[in-house]
Amino acid sequence: MSTIHLLMGPDAGRGRADGAAATVDQTVRGEGHEPVDITGADAPESARAVREAVARGAERVIVVGGDGMVHLALQAVAGSNTVLGVVPVGTGNDFARAFDVDTKAPVDEATRRALGPAKTIDAIHSDRGWVASVATAGFSGDVNKRANGLRWPKGPKRYTVATLIEIPRMRSREIRLVVDGQAHDLDVALLAVANTAWFGGGMQICPDARPDDGQLDVTVVRKIGRVALLRYFPMVFSGSHLSHPKTSTYRGRTISIECDALDVWGDGEELGSGSITFTATPGAFNLAI
Question: What's residue 1's pLDDT?
């Protein structure tokens, strides 16, 4: 019998993780393991608990929540031998989507998958921490902030509503994007630096991104009008936006964004403002898939 550490996100999916907790616990026991809930009273306490568990040699941590909880756990498991499992009951579940996890599967089925074999995958590293899926800035960051404050609707549609609310407020930002030492001066509406393809509840912002190639994919939407962006927006769900004349793409190992007044987000969590450098880190952590 092995010990399985559980990290619940009670706010994920507006309460879905809290409702799934009993099923996860029962399934872990049914598979012959001992579950230990290390969830704290708030995010900092949970972060501290998972760091301590990993430091003590935790074999596996299962996150019951969404992209935000994956982001929290990654800060501890990256660079360790601890396996991360995910039961996706969050709002966007974009990280799980990148690994063909059925985000609507029954909780017991998702839990058994989280207890399964592991694969070593890449992650994005910066001086502000690790990112599992996508780091984004500009209009997409504004949408993230708006979506986090909405109480309705539930699920991925919250990002769609947030996008429609933010379009009238959209503004471009002048940045310098440096890709493996090559500089590009750009006036951008939004940009994304990706380890995996999806963000925003199912938008394929970087459809060619792969979490096992040691590279980061970058999608830039250059300055665009509000009406044009409204037409552009549905294309991102299919990935067809890459052919749009306002889209530029890049790929590299090290990506720097130079801009003093730019809020940056990672996995839907705020990373802070100002210039930042992201580096692809091959084999950064072990994921149950």
Answer: 65
- DSSP E strands in the chain: the ranges are 3-8, 34-37, 60-65, 83-88, 118-126, 129-131, 134-138, 173-179, 182-194, 216-222, 247-252, 254-258, 263-266, 269-273, 276-288
Cα–Cα distance, 284 to 77 (Å, whole number): 9
Label residue 101 by pLDDT band (50, 70, 90).
confident
Match domain 3-116 to its CATH number in 2.60.40.2660, 3.40.50.1820, 3.40.50.10330, 3.10.20.30: 3.40.50.10330
CATH number at 131-282: 2.60.200.40
Q: Average pLDDT of the chain?
A: 91
**Is 279 within 8 Å of 254 (Cβ atoms)?**
yes
205-221 burial, b for 16+ CB within 10 Å, e for fewer? bbbebbbeeebbbbbbb
Q: What's the token pair of residue 32?
A: 């012959």
Per residue in 127-172, pLDDT (tens digit) is: 999 999 999 998 877 777 787 777 777 767 777 888 788 787 788 8
In this prediction, residues 116-134 reach a mean pLDDT of 97
Domain boundaries, the chain: 3-116, 131-282
Neighbours of 30 (CB within 10 A): 11
Q: Could you report the per-residue pLDDT of 34-56, keeping only the tens digit for each?
A: 999 999 999 999 999 999 999 99
Which pTM does this prediction carry?
A: 0.91
**Residue appearing with tokens 């890449």:** 122
Round to whole Å and give the CA distance between 176 and 118: 38
